[in-house]
Design a protein that fits this description.
Number of domains: 3
Largest sheet: 4 strands, antiparallel
CATH topology of the largest domain: Immunoglobulin-like
Structural class: alpha+beta
CATH class of the largest domain: Mainly Beta
Strand order of the largest sheet: 1-2-3-4
Distance between the termini: 97 Å
Helix content: 40-55%
Length: 348
């Protein structure tokens, strides 16, 4: 039976659309993933950048992207591009989002570097070795025939923008995670443990698989428990007989200094007690502080300072001794101080 010409038209149109679509890189998520990976692993970051989503480009310029990738990868693409192979094993497409499972085989850079560092270490006993020589050794190693290889699996995400598939690195989220991690570390440095923990929790809300955040939360929970335990016990350590004045020494007639006593009213032995003394001006404003460790048990301490503060024990300086505070400014009002116990460590 002969088909009417009108029957062929829709079929021909469909075939043409498919063929044209296959010729456009952005029309097929698998092809986009392929050309992106080709460009990326050969160090052609300008081309790789063109296949990023507009959402990613809004967060990171070409210059920033190229700089970051160059810093992270260094000479690896130049030296290893011929050794890298990948296979896109599966692509799952749901609406305007695709997930590409990629299996990548490449030189085991970690093992190679360890071998080179081992050789460099041995060479250091004979001659000095610099970064240029290590780089040369790396290049020679990668040009060899038998080099260790490794295989890893990654998931590459793509999204459809204006009818074209683009690689989606979610750089906005990565930027947020980086900022949160920086803030968390700053809070840790400032001993603001609860605030640091909340930042790591915010990181996990964005990326639940980030091991670093999970580990830090676990560590912070332990530190918070220790901190809470310390804070509860600090109230049992009494600081009293606090005095401050200008003392006379053999070398100086006016040396700012302080004296105080400690009593352990609790039931635990302390191997460290930190006391912070705040010095004030004539208006009662704090103008500086000094930190002292009257109790500090360590292998570097000697004499009375190396004794723990046991339950019901009292600590005081030897008679005729005082803690100097030579950095106190001249604006200090003689005798105007306050003090508190700012840290302790248990001996059990």
């Amino acid at each position: 039976m002969k088909l009417h010409n009108n029957t062929f038209l829709p079929l021909i149109t469909f075939v043409l659309i498919v063929l044209i679509g296959c010729g456009q890189p952005g029309a097929n998520p698998e092809r986009v993933a392929s050309v992106y990976l080709d460009a990326y692993y050969t160090g052609n970051y300008e081309e790789a950048y063109q296949y990023l989503s507009e959402k990613d480009k809004a967060v990171m310029s070409l210059r920033q992207y190229r700089s970051e990738q160059t810093e992270e990868m260094g000479l690896i693409p130049q030296l290893m591009s011929s050794r890298i192979s990948y296979e896109i094993r599966n692509i799952t497409v749901v609406d305007n989002k695709a997930e590409a499972e990629v299996r990548i085989t490449l030189p085991d850079f970690g093992t190679i570097v360890m071998d080179i560092l081992g050789s460099a270490f041995m060479s250091a006993f004979r001659d000095e070795i610099d970064e240029d020589e290590i780089e040369k050794m790396l290049e020679e190693e990668l040009e060899g025939e038998d080099i260790p290889m490794t295989t890893t699996s990654e998931t590459l995400t793509l999204i459809k923008e204006d009818g074209e598939w683009k690689v989606f690195l979610n750089l906005e989220e990565q930027k947020m995670i980086t900022e949160l991690l920086i803030e968390a570390q700053q809070y840790e440095d400032e001993k603001k443990l609860y605030a640091a923990k909340s930042k790591y929790e915010a990181v996990l809300e964005l990326d639940s698989d980030l091991v670093e955040a999970s580990e830090r939360i676990s560590e912070l929970e332990k530190e918070i428990e220790i901190f809470r335990e310390k804070q509860e016990y600090i109230d049992k350590v009494e600081l009293y007989n606090l005095t401050a004045r200008y003392y006379q020494t053999f070398r100086d007639d006016r040396v700012p200094g302080v004296e105080f006593k400690l009593r352990n009213n609790g039931d635990r032995t302390l191997k460290c007690v930190e006391v912070t003394v705040y010095f004030k001006d004539s208006e009662g404003k704090i103008i500086t502080e000094e930190i002292y460790n009257p109790v500090l048990v360590s292998r570097y301490s000697i004499g009375r300072d190396n004794r723990p503060l046991r339950p019901n024990y009292i600590w005081q300086l030897e008679r005729g001794k005082f803690y100097q505070a030579k950095s106190v400014p001249s604006e200090w009002q003689d005798g105007a101080v306050s003090a508190q116990i700012t840290d302790i460590e248990f001996d059990d």
